[in-house]
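Supplementary Methods. Inverse-folding protocol.

Structures were first reduced to a discrete structure-token string of length 95. This string, shown here, constituted the complete conditioning input.
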């Protein structure tokens, strides 16, 4: 399974959010073997950006570890609204 988490951040909080998410993702990679990606939409709407964290091929229990890491890093203090999580899985090709 792959996790896609998207959320909003004010332009004025973007640098602080980046400073929280980058080391959080480094810790997740070190302790859980999942290398996250951080993306954002290229445009800003009303001084708000949309960011996305992508975690490919997560092991069982990773979502709970991610939630704990987000709390420890204080990520939510820099976001506007909720973090939205989408889960996708690979499609097995038909034989």
């Amino acid at each position: 399974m792959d996790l896609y988490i998207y959320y909003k951040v004010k332009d004025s909080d973007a640098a602080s959010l980046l400073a929280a998410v980058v080391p959080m993702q480094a810790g997740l990679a070190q302790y859980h073997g999942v290398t996250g990606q951080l993306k954002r939409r290229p445009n800003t709407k009303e001084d708000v950006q949309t960011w996305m964290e992508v975690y490919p091929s997560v092991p069982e229990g990773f979502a709970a570890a991610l939630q704990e890491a987000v709390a420890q890093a204080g990520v939510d203090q820099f976001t506007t609204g909720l973090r939205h999580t989408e889960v996708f899985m690979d499609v097995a090709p038909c034989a």
